[in-house]
Amino acid sequence: MKVYKPILALSLVLGDYSVSGCDLHTQQDFEKICLSGGHTQASCDCIYQRLEQVYSHKLMQRLEHVSLQSPALPQDFAPTFFSVMRRCDKEDMG
Predict the structure, then answer these.
(1) 52 with 60: CB under 8 angstroms?
(2) CB-CB neighbours of 45 under 10 Å
(3) In the chain, what's the furthest Cα-to-Cα distance?
(4) Left (φ > 0), alpha (ψ -120 to 50) or beta: where does 38 sit?
(5) 8-47: per-residue pLDDT in tens?
(6) Is residue 7 pLDDT above 70, yes or no?
(7) φ, ψ for residue 56 (rounded to 5)?
(8) Which of helix, strand or coil describes residue 53?
(9) Which letter does DSSP use for residue 36 in this model?
(10) Distances (CA, A) of 29 to 22, 71, 76, 84
(11) Closest Cα to residue 10, out of 87, 82, 84?
């Protein structure tokens, strides 16, 4: 069951980008969606910052236009996202 929670969270985050029709241009947009997924402000900030460090600001802005199967995403994006999310949530919980 623990495996499904990160997959659901990622699906919600990426799905909200494409369904909403809103452009993802800022960290605040990412955080708003992340917060709606049940994460804390500190955890969402951590997730975004770490993903941006690993990939780039440009990639983070393009997330709304891609799916997990898209060749536009690095092959390690989903596992990295899950790992970063777990670490940030764990750090936030103390």
Answers:
(1) yes
(2) 17
(3) 36
(4) left
(5) 455 555 554 444 444 445 677 888 888 998 999 999 999 9
(6) no
(7) -170, 160
(8) helix
(9) H
(10) 9, 23, 23, 18
(11) 82
- Which is it for the CA torsion 13, 15, 17, 21, positive or negative? negative
Please tell me the distance from the alpha carbon of residue 6 to that of residue 43, in angstroms, as a whole number. 14
Q: How far apart are CA 60 and CA 27, in angstroms?
A: 9
Token couple for 81: 């996202």
pLDDT in tens, 40-94: 999 999 999 999 999 988 888 877 777 767 788 898 998 999 999 999 999 988 7
Which amino acid is located at 24 in the chain? L
